[in-house]
Amino acid sequence: MLERIHLAIIREVDRQGSLTAAANTLCLTQSALSHSIKKLEQQLDTDIWLREGRSLRPTQAGQYLLAVANRVLPQLSLAEEQLRQFAQGERGTLRIGMECHPCYQWLLKVVSPYLEAWPDVDVDVKQKFQFGGIGALFGYEIDMLVTPDPLYKPGLHFEPVFDYEQVLVVSRHHHLAKQSYVEPEQLSHETLITYPVEINRLDIYNQFLQPAGIHPKSHKTIETTDIMLQMVASNRGVAALPRWLVEKYAHEIAIAPVQLGQRGIAKQIFLGAREADVNIDYLKAFFQTARSAPF
Amino acid sequence: MLERIHLAIIREVDRQGSLTAAANTLCLTQSALSHSIKKLEQQLDTDIWLREGRSLRPTQAGQYLLAVANRVLPQLSLAEEQLRQFAQGERGTLRIGMECHPCYQWLLKVVSPYLEAWPDVDVDVKQKFQFGGIGALFGYEIDMLVTPDPLYKPGLHFEPVFDYEQVLVVSRHHHLAKQSYVEPEQLSHETLITYPVEINRLDIYNQFLQPAGIHPKSHKTIETTDIMLQMVASNRGVAALPRWLVEKYAHEIAIAPVQLGQRGIAKQIFLGAREADVNIDYLKAFFQTARSAPF
DNA sequence: AACAATCAATTAATTTTATTCATACATAAA
DNA sequence: TTTATGTATGAATAAAATTAATTGATTGTT
Predict the structure, then answer these.
(1) How large is the C-alpha radius of gyration of chain B?
(2) Taking a C-beta distance cutoff of 8 angstroms, is the pair A17, A78 a contact?
(3) pLDDT of residue A295
(4) Which of A194, A162, A168 is nearest to A246 (CA)?
(5) Are residues B133 and B46 in the same domain?
(6) Is B154 close to A129, i.e. CB distance below 8 A?
(7) Residue A273 and residue A192 share a domain
(8) Please, how many CA atoms are within 13 Å of residue B103, restricted to the half-sphere of its CB?
(9) Can you give the residue range of the structural domain that contains A242?
(10) Nucleotide lying nearest to B33, CA to C1' measure
(11) Counting one residue from A and one from B, how many pairs have CB atoms under 8 Å apart?
(12) Where would I find the HTH lysR-type domain in this sequence (chains A, B) (predicted)?
């Protein structure tokens, strides 16, 4: 039978490079691991490593088991962690994933009243997922997803929690700053500064520039909002961000929001979770807190 | 440590209703299970069942562990099965999921040349998923999904494999049978027969009737294609199906296809898989076989 | 109310399994 | 060569899981 220890050994040998090193981190002897795996190999009737000299190279079966280990072991650790929290009377950890940069600013405002209302629930925020936010939900990496891009599929529950307007941000001294709105053409001589994501995922691109067939003069990417806004303020380029975010910073930094197009660009942020979980009280409460967030 | 046996016991007690019965199916004694779980409870410092008289009712922790068991145990069994197949020189089993009724007819035509080309790969077709096709892909229930409804998300790879036209099917003696196409209004006095799925997922509804604000006189659902066509032939109603499917049956059953609207309804079937898997040779080959299918 | 049947818990004995120790063997580097 | 470092193996040992036998509790039946 394939046991947890086998997966642990396989994962650790992959990480450490040798049985001996793996044995140390697992607090066992090299001999113990060798015996364990040998027995498993006999049961499965297939080798897990090719023994080349004194190094171990995983066979096809070994590679497959490594993938299984990397997938399954975290699920078991998570289960133990959850149970530990149950035992201590805590409610658990709400693991929130985020797929968009402005979501982070919004989330901060929601998390703080939530933590007050639910003192025995911890909140953990993750931003990188191997298989994207949806995959992270399905794979139990996270329990909740904040995204501009919902997915109405069986097994998942999404609801909009926050409407905002995406606007152009320019320096307060920029010639566009006084206009009530900009047309796509007016950006063809501007430098566009965005977060480092696929260009197709940027609203200003696929909802504004792309339909008009316009390209900005150049395109720079910057990780952090603060630096991005500093760049905009010093007239190195223009950016597209939520209006509320721009207004929040406008006191400190010399920037101004400008509506994108005659109608503006309306956006929504959605909160999603596994359908099976939406009745867990502390999760349900997060939806409520999110809906009644102060915006 | 939470071990496989613990999860197996918890799942089996849930299924069988008692420790004694679970012990039998697990080929152990009731005492063994009792000891195992008791030890686990001590380690986790939480009860798994409430002992009420002589019956066991899962606690919150128990319910949580049951969910973990139902999720994790199949992954381990699958891994063992895969390894067994590796060991025997077989390539494995390609587990294909399907989300649409006409896909099945199409799939049959693809599977047969594939099985010939890959004699050491088995194909298994599943049609019901707890969390939908996407969830089944992410949850390793299936390796490949046939769907009219692709999802371009990180972690998944989709490609179109088959274009077809969705047409109205009527009895050969029906007054619409001679028309070159039908307008939505002409269906307002017809009985519409469909597969038993959500009405919003039906193309004839959301792409044809809905936009025109038309409702059919009545709506019946039928599971099987053959019976559905028999019903249509005997003038009990009209249906919407792929043109190629209608033409295939038209020799045996007195039915006729009619184009939906002036432009017709164009449809595509997509094949999807986990990105991590698309380089597995026998999986890649299925994509190729599918693309070059005889349509 | 008494009785049999059913089920889980417990203790002690036993069996099985995992682990270590000591050592052999193989390889790469000095 | 020699040395250092790695894995494999057999026998001994420690640890663990499992069983057998029994108790106590509960449920259903007569």
Answers:
(1) 25
(2) no
(3) 55
(4) A168
(5) no
(6) yes
(7) no
(8) 22
(9) 163-267
(10) D18
(11) 125
(12) 1-59
Regarding whether A168 and A142 lie in a shared domain, the answer is no
Do residues B104 and B170 share a domain? no
In this predicted model, what pLDDT tens digit does every residue of B159-211 receive, in sequence order? 998 888 999 999 999 999 999 999 999 998 999 999 887 777 788 888 898 88
Determine how many CB atoms are found less than 10 A away from the CB of residue B6: 23
- Residue B203 CA to residue B166 CA, distance in Å, equals 8
User: Which of B1, B86, B139 has its CB closest to that of A60?
Assistant: B86
Q: What local confidence, expressed as pLDDT, does residue A85 receive? A: 86
Q: Which residues of chain A have pLDDT under 70?
A: 294-295
Domain boundary among B36, B69, B86: B86
Q: By 3-state DSSP, what share of chain B in percent is helix, strand and coil, each rounded to 5?
A: 45, 25, 30
Choose among A164, A109, A121: nearest CA to A292: A109
Last residue of a domain, one of B55, B86, B117: B86
pLDDT of residue A294: 60
Are residues A173 and A48 located together in one domain of the fold? no
Residue of B nearest to A130 (CA): B155
Cβ neighbours of B79 in A, within 8 Å: 2, 64-65, 68, 72
Q: Is B206 on the interface with A (CB under 8 A)?
A: no
Is B52 within 7 A of strand D by CB distance?
yes
**pTM across the whole model:** 0.75
| A36 CB and strand C closer than 7 A | yes
C-alpha–C-alpha distance, residues A4 and B26, integer Å: 18
Number of domains making up chain B: 3
Answer yes or no: is A39 CB < 7 A from strand C.
yes
Residues A188 and A279 in one domain: no
Q: Which residues have CB under 8 Å from B198's CB, separation 6+?
A: none
CATH number of the domain where residue B189 is located: 3.40.190.10
DSSP tag of B15: H
Share of chain A above pLDDT 70, in %: 99
- A153 interface with B at CB cutoff 8 Å: yes
Q: How far is CA A288 from the centre of its chain?
A: 21
Per-residue tokens: A175: 């010639």
Contacts with B229 (C-beta within 8 Å, 6 or more apart), sequence order: B169, B239, B249, B253, B255
- Report d(CA A215, CA A209) in Å as an integer: 7
Q: What are the tens digits of pLDDT across the range B121-158? A: 888 888 888 778 888 888 888 999 999 888 888 889 99
| Cα–Cα distance for residue pair B225/B218, rounded to 1 Å | 19
* B35 and B155 fall within a common domain: no
Chain D bases having any atom below 7 Å from a protein CB: 5-11, 17-21, 24-27
Cβ–Cβ contacts within 10 Å for residue B117, how many? 13
CB contact under 8 A, B134 and A138: yes
B61 contacts chain A (CB < 8 A): yes
pLDDT of residue B45: 93
Q: Are A83 and A21 in contact (CB under 8 A)?
A: no
Say whether residue B81 is in contact with chain A using an 8 A CB cutoff.
no
